[in-house]
Amino acid sequence: MESVRHYAHQEVTQESPLNPKQETEPEKGSQRKKKKTYVPGLLLLLPILLFIFGFFVVPMLYILYLSFIYTDSPTATNAVFSLKNYMLFFSDSYYLSSLWITVKVSLYTVLVSLLLGYPVALTMAKSSPRVRGYIALLIAAPLLVSIVVRNFGWYLLLLPNGTINSVLASLGIIDSPLKLLFSEIGVIIGLSNAYLPFMILAIATSLYNIDPSLERASAILGASPLRSFFSVTLPLSLPGIVSGCVLVFSMSMSAYVTPALMGGANVPMMPVVAYDQINNLLRWTFGSALSYVLLATTMIMVTVFTRGFEKSKFREVFR
Amino acid sequence: MQAIKNAVRNDVEIRNVIKKFGSTTVLNGIDLEVRQGELLTLLGPSGCGKTTTLNLIAGFLEADEGDVYIKGKNVTHIPPYKRDLGMVFQTYSLFPHMTIYENLDFGLKLRKVAKADKERRIDSALHLVKMSGLEHRYPRELSGGQRQRVAIARALVVEPELLLLDEPLSNLDAKLRHELRVEIKRLQKEIGVTTIFVTHDQEEALSLSDRVVVMNGGKIEQISSPTTIYNHPETEFVFQFIGKSNCFHGTVTATDSQKISVQLEDGWGTFVDADNVMGADRTCRTGDQVKLYIRPEKLFITPSDQAQPGPFHKATITQMNYLGASWEIDVALIGKPVQILTPMYDASWQIGKEVMIGWNPSDIMLIKK
Amino acid sequence: MIKITGKLRLIFTILTIIYILVPLLVVIPASFTSASYPSFPPQGFSFQWYTKLLERPEFMTALINSAKFAFMAAFFAVIFGTLGALAIAKYDIPGKAYITSLLTSPLSVPQLVLGVALLIYFTPLMLAGTGTGFLIAHIIICIPYVIRLVLTGLSGFDYNLERAAAILGASPLTVFWKVTLPLIRPAIISGGLFAFLISFDNVTVSLFMVSPDMRTLPIEIFSHMQDAYDPLVASVSSVVIFISVILIVILEKLQGVGKIFGGTH
Fold it and tell me: Short name of one Pfam family for this protein (chain B) (predicted)?
């Protein structure tokens, strides 16, 4: 068997003030596993590549194409290639408000998850690996239970005669039940509850990567714990905050089950509307256009948000 | 509060400090004084409590018992950010999201130093560590050695009461480590800031320090100048931890005020200076079972046919290693391995050949078993 | 001061963890109610909603369907995914990074969009509403997780072990069966279990793939919740929680659930 070894060689350079050398950087991945021939590798990859291509890439491109096909009715044969589906979307206030509600609810979900999640991530970072593991298990395990079950739990708690309203009423805090379910609040509660673990784990990961002696350095230079948090820990955890926000935002934008169950017709978020168009009204081409509007909006917002941070004065943190 | 009235002022005093982590006692009754302007090294193997001691002085840990004074003030329960210290860490610990200038400015901002004064101080601190002109770089863009220089500048720019150095050189390669060691010594003498240096590297400790504190198992073994630590260790641990050693076993046959006679296992006798007794009471009596220690470079080696004064014994060479500046020669002395370090070389020294081994009574340290 | 903020943070952490768990914690007690409507805390105590569950064959059929398809989806996803991950980790294939992100990209496309795309694509192929179509869709959503987990498992793999075996005279196939596979088995098993749970729990993609003759348990619960509001949902949900907990315990032992989501070092 022929194999060529490539030894990772470290360049030795003379140290001078203007010739930075990173002695402590670990070597970038061992190159020893390199093979001269990768043909067997391609053979191993072939089944999965064909599968992904045939049942993911092609369907996705197909509905992109369909989104530019306009028909008057699902059964009409007068299909024309045009931007009409998209124009229809952007000229109808119902769809625009649906997009707006989707973005608004998603942003609130991100905000709630961030505010609730950061302290938990901080606790994880400051705990022993054992406690960290327990917390990770407790917050990640619900992700493996079907979302419909979790939503049903919220039904019990949030319905007009549910647990929360009963408790508040019996304490005399409210006279008539609060409208928690089938409202934006309900959807935000459901979504933030479902996606909070992702936010926590993303932030915790970036907190683990902060050298603990940085906080000590800051303390010894005279910074109080609060000051240290705001000038050292918080900025250095920005990558985790950003990736957590991006994750929660994208998932909220595309969530279907929670808006459908906890918002219903009162909170017509984009996925609910798209589902209706496809499955009930059979308007496939318009539904495809809706899907891509949702996809594009999410991607544009995520890109602007991420780029904004990477170009900010904290750009050094993202390297 | 009139604790300090000595001729030499103590900048730090640690009084009977005990520190436990759970059920393990990390510091078991430490007493330590750091004199004004000196460079004191805490030396010992990992787990000896040297870093814990430094962290108590820095304020990252609180003592379970005992007190810590800095410049006469009891700081035992004062948090680190109110102690006005400077510290350099093993991992450089520069704030990665701040430029070099912002890193140095961090402590000055907290001290509300006026802008003009600030720039002057940052300039001179960077000049001091030979890092002028890199103010607007980020730490990522510097090499390890450069980062550590900046870290030193950041610690010094606030003009701290004390400078604490926590193994600052251990992440650097050998050449850089030596270079920065010399630099730290120069800076410390130039500025005169009282400095506490933690290391597990004995060479670093011996070359840098005014005084060395050798620690082991949560206790202080010896506090002395580097030469005393090396030549007249007070305990067996210190002897073995600092430098290499050869060990012989024997019995004390006679003592007087000058010398102690010891009969070695193999039947030979040797003298030991009465001052060279290690251990708690530093005495021994006739009949005591003892161990004798001698450093490899204190042993003489001569070709076997040359007559020599003093106690010389026949030995057989088992191994010879050339180290460049010296030879490391392993011999068997009546079956026992002994190591010798000598800058000399004789062509007749070959593996399997006989040589004569000798020593001075003043170079042997003795301890009761 | 530090201690007070630390305590506050701890209390806050515990409350947030309770917030994450609360919807699951209320479901199980609610399933034992003796009333005709679900509530928390439950009214009285009875097993009636579990016995009623047994009288509803559609739930049982759906449960069997879910388990069957989740198993098949996990099986194929593990085969495709493990081969793919091995190729990516071991061979220096050009454009490796792009291939990896292509294989994990079904994760970053909204499931709803994926469902729409597959429904529209499957209809002319006569796959819409069939078991095959359902299976293909579920394999697609499982593949990224298997790829990720197996790649993680392979990242610490010492390829010198394979060389050592080869030097000792093992053929490439023997090396794979006797050395490589046993060493990455935990990663493959967790990949499979994870894929099983992902498929078992899925609603959004399934909604586009099911037909009146072929429904899965989450779909059954979903439509039941939209039509009626009775404790039957609580008892069937409790069954789902029970199954999930068993698999979570196994996963935790094998790999660490937090680690799978990137939560611990």
Answer: TOBE_2
Q: Is B75 helix (H, G, I), strand (E, B) or coil?
A: coil
Q: Does one domain contain both B307 and B273?
A: yes
Which among B238, B269, B284 is the end of a domain? B238
DSSP state at residue C158: -
Per-residue pLDDT reduced to its tens digit, B327-358: 899 998 877 889 999 888 888 888 888 888 88
Question: Cβ distance C217 to C236 under 8 Å?
Answer: yes
Mutation test of the interface with chain B: which of A221, A228, A229, A230, choosing the one with the most B Cβ atoms within 10 A?
A221
Q: At B46, which CATH number?
A: 3.40.50.300
CB contact (8 A) between residue A213 and residue B93 = yes
Determine the distance from the C-alpha atom of residue B169 to the mean position of all C-alpha atoms in its chain, rounded to a whole number. Answer: 14
Give the pLDDT of residue A9: 36
Residue ranges making up the domain that contains B112: 10-238
Q: Which CATH number fits domain A93-318: 1.10.3720.10, 1.10.357.20, 3.40.190.10, 3.20.20.70?
A: 1.10.3720.10
Distance, in Å, from the CA atom of C244 to the CA atom of C200, rounded to the nearest integer, reads: 9
- Is B328 exposed, middle or buried, given 0-12, 13-18 or 19+ CB atoms closer than 10 A? middle
Mutate to test the interface with A, among C32, C59, C113, C121 (most CBs of A within 10 A): C113
C-alpha–C-alpha distance, residues C176 and C183, integer Å: 10
Residues B321 and B234 in one domain: no
Interface ipTM above 0.90? no
C88 contact residues in A (CB cutoff 8 A):
41, 45
Supply B231's token pair.
């030549």
Whether residues B127 and B264 fall in one domain? no
pLDDT tens per residue, range A51-69 = 999 999 999 999 999 889 8
Question: Total structural domains in chain C?
Answer: 1
pLDDT in tens, B300-328: 888 776 656 666 788 889 999 988 888 89
**How many whole angstroms separate alpha carbon A13 and alpha carbon A20?**
9
Do B262 and B227 reside in the same domain of the chain?
A: no
**Model confidence at A181, in pLDDT bands (50, 70, 90)?**
confident
- Note whether B210 and B260 are same-domain residues: no
Give a yes or no: residue B265 inside a domain: yes
Taking every pair of C-alpha atoms in chain C, what is the biggest distance, in angstroms?
A: 71
Alpha-carbon distance A240 to nearest alpha carbon in chain B (angstroms): 15
Tens-place pLDDT, residues C79-100: 999 999 988 888 888 888 899 8
Count of positions (residues) in chain B? 369
- Return the amino acid letter for A255: A
Average pLDDT over residues C177-189: 84
Q: In terms of domains, do B215 and B277 share one?
A: no
Smallest CA-to-CA distance from C237 within A258, A145, A262 is with A145
How many distinct structural domains can be found in chain B? 2
Q: Is residue C50 part of a domain?
A: no
Confidence bin at C132 (pLDDT 50/70/90): very high
For B254-277, write each residue's pLDDT tens digit. 888 888 888 887 777 888 888 888
Burial of residue B279 (number of CB atoms within 10 Å: 0-12, 13-18, 19+): middle
Rounded to two decimals, what is the model's pTM?
Answer: 0.82
CATH number for the domain spanning B284: value is: 2.40.50.140
CATH number of the structural domain spanning residue C80: 1.10.3720.10
Question: CB distance C26–A157 less than 8 Å?
Answer: yes
The mean pLDDT of B67-77, rounded to a whole number, is: 93
Q: B362 and B308 in one domain?
A: yes
A205-264 residue pLDDT tens:
889 889 989 999 999 999 999 999 999 999 999 999 998 999 899 989 989 999 999 998
Distance CA B201, CA B30 (A): 21
Asked if the Cβ–Cβ distance from B146 to A20 is below 8 Å, we say yes
Look up the domain containing C79 and give its range.
Answer: 57-260
Q: What is the mean pLDDT of chain A?
A: 83
Shortest distance, CA C56 to any CA of chain A (angstroms): 18
